[in-house]
Structures are given as C-alpha cells and as structure tokens.
Amino acid sequence: MFASLARYVAAVAALTCCSLSAFAATEVLVGDAKSQPESMAVGPGGVLYVGSASSPFIYRVQPGATTAEKFIDLSSEPAVNYFLGVLTDPATNTLWACQQTPVPDTKPVQRHTALRAFDLKTGAPKLRWNLPGENTTCNDMVVGPDKALYISDTGPGRIYRLALGAQSAELFSDARQLGGIDGITFLDGVLYTNSVVFNKLYRIPVTAGKAGAPEDIWMDAPVRGIDGMRAANGKLFAAENGSGKITQLELNGDRAHVTVLKEGLKTPTGVEPAGDTLWFTERGTGKVMSMPLPK
What we know:
Layout: H1 2-21, E1 27-29, E2 37-42, E3 48-52, E4 57-61, E5 69-73, E6 82-89, E7 94-102, E8 111-119, E9 125-130, E10 138-143, E11 149-153, E12 158-162, E13 170-173, E14 181-187, E15 190-195, E16 200-204, E17 206-207, E18 210-211, E19 215-219, E20 226-232, E21 235-240, E22 245-252, E23 255-262, E24 268-274, E25 277-282, E26 287-292
Parallel strand pairs: 19-23
Antiparallel strand pairs: 1-26, 2-3, 3-4, 4-5, 6-7, 7-8, 8-9, 10-11, 11-12, 12-13, 14-15, 15-16, 16-19, 17-18, 20-21, 21-22, 22-23, 24-25, 25-26
C-alpha cells in the first residue's frame, strides 16, 4: 500500500513538474541595453513588434528568435524621433505607433507627437496624424469594438478617436480626470484607462458614442507608475514602471483586486497578452520578456 502511494505521489510530482516546465520563458535583448523598449505588440504568427524610446526604430522579432531586427527606421528624418506605444491591427494589416519628436531648446522638454500607421508586413508608411497642440504625448492606443482606434495623449490628458478608414482623429474626451493618462484598453467592450502620474484606474462610460465622466476604480493595493495596460481572460494586466512590477487587476464593480505577477524588474512599461503568454518590456535593461498568462 505504501509503495503504491509512493509511486502515485511520484507520478503526480512528475506531472506537476512537466506542466510547470512546459512554458519556456523568452528573453530578447532589443538592439542593446540602451534601446529602451517602451511598448510592444504581438502580430500574426507570433511576430513581436517593439518600439524604442531612445532611437528612431521599431524592431521586429520573429518567433523563436533571440535577436531583434530593425523594421521601421526613421533615422533619415531631420528631427530626433523615438516611439512610445505600438499596436498591431491584423484586420487592417496595420502597425500603429506613437512617434515622439522633442522640440529643441525647450525646458522642460516639449514634444510634437504623431500617430503613425505602417504596413504590418512591409513597414511601408500608411498614415501620419499630428496630435493638436504645442506639447503633446501620443502614448498608447487600442482598437475598440466599433473598429475605431482610441489614442491616449498624456500631456494634456486627452483621448482621441480615429474612425475606421479616417485620416484624422477627433477629440473623444478631455475630462479633468485624464491628467497623466497612459494605458488604454477595452475589457468586455468597456473602455478603461489609467494615469501614470496619479496612479489611478478609470472606467470610461460611453453613451450613444459619447464619452461620459471617468469612473474611479478603487484598487485594493497601491500601484506606482502604472503604465501600459491590456486585457485578457476577463482581467486587466498592467506594467508598473515605478515599482518594477507586472500586475493583474481583477475587476468587481468599482473595485479592482491587485495581484503582483512579477516584481524586481527595472522599469517595465508595456504588456501584451497573446495566447497563453504574457509579454512585457523591461525598458531599463533593453529587453522583452515573457511569462505564463494567468487563466
């Protein structure tokens, strides 16, 4: 009996070991340690697209590769440029990106920013829309249930909406709560944003296509520098650049339960769930990494 029990325990342990080791974490150095990967996205076939916040490049990483290749190169443009948010939109064969152009001789530094669209396969430019204002920060974007693109503008605290097929976006919301807006995503058809400045999470109610006042979601643990944010499996996932954490946010009405999935990172800024994998960027080390996506 005891021998049979021992064999059973050993078999269960072996199965558990195998199931835990079935996921092979990936770590890719993007260019070099100074590339500052701010945001990343996963395209068809598992191809990774990674924007650099220190250079005029968007990198591409093929499935299984351990090195990145330059995919978008703006080094020939006269001004200094770099990228924040990136997003793949396979339905329109588009790679969306937030291009940043610092204004020379300004203190504190001001930026002119643009929403860019590139062909997802070839990298050919498709669209450029300059955000209105003297100091803007196109930061992140998400495709909504209506097929429109929703764009966060951190500096002035705004959300813009680019209708499918349109060449310019319209102001969707400039509510005062949007100061420091960064991450933006849809969960179950509902729009959520966060503030990297004030460490807040908001739900944006929409009635007849119009945005209402942002609704505060109370998080049951402190977050610091909440940044890129995406949704999967009925939950939100966020990077905390101030505390070095990847966080899961499980919503229940106007409350969110915070679960730390990974900590000890050096300035994580972007997250992207894809299949059974949660990808994230570690800007401080120039790397893109992965971990199992919680169910």
